[in-house]
Amino acid sequence: GDTVKAKVIPMRFTWAFISASEDREGTFNLMTAQEGMVPAAQKEDVNGTKVARWFMRLVSGGDIAKL
To answer: Using CA atoms, how far apart are residues 55 and 35, in angstroms rounded to an integer?
Structure first.
């Protein structure tokens, strides 16, 4: 019966950032795993070239406070 309220702020990540060889704290694996589930409205492509994706950052349970 608890209520959880969340403020969601979409973040734009360039494809260069997502596909960089340097994995930033698991970001690459997380984002590439979600690539197949991203709706068209969250994709920025130009002539078939991936430019950017809009994602929401995941938070841990410790970041959520019971109201």
So the answer is: 10
Lay out the sheet containing 43-46: strands in order across.
11-14, 49-55, 43-46
Beta bridge partners of 54: 12
Judge whether 53 and 35 are in contact, CB under 8 Å.
yes
Q: Which residues contact 43 (CB under 8 A, 6 or more apart)?
A: 50, 52, 53, 54
11 DSSP β-pair partners: 55
Residues 4-39 have pLDDT tens digits of: 777 777 889 898 888 887 766 666 777 777 778 888
pTM of the model: 0.62
